[in-house]
Amino acid sequence: LKEENASLRSRINKLQIFSETQADKMKKLERMLEENKIKEEKEAQDLEAMVHHVEQNLQLMTKRAVKAENNATKLKQENALLQVQLKNYKMENEALRSGQAASLAAVKQNADVALQSLLTVITKSRSSIKQLVSGAESLQLVADLLKSIDRISEV
């Protein structure tokens, strides 16, 4: 009985040690599981924050695109207006060249008014539209032509 009792005590001690080892392993695994949960929650929060940031960027880009489209429409309208004015000035220039103007003073006055109008249009277009710079340069050329007509008519 003593031997069997000692054997059983020995087995009980071994089982207790094994049980403690298993309990330690369980605690470590539980800690690791908790750490993994915390890590996954943090990653989920980071992903949510990233998604939110991307959504904000998309909204901002959408606003910018709408603004750019509106600006492009406005520039097209202003360009069409400038084209009509240029056509009118060309017709007036042709009329002046063909001698239909009543007198030299009237021609000079019309040229001055046209020049002032052109300069006003050029100033406005330069201040508000970078894309129409080339059109403004064309208008400046027309203004120079009007000046040269004044000089030619004076001569």
TrEMBL record:
GO biological process: positive regulation of cilium assembly; positive regulation of protein localization to cilium; regulation of cytokinesis
Superkingdom per UniProt: Eukaryota
GO CC term (a single one): centrosome
Keywords: Coiled coil
Coiled-coil annotated residue ranges, if any: 23-92
Similarity remark: Belongs to the ENTR1 family.
Protein name, UniProt field: Endosome-associated-trafficking regulator 1
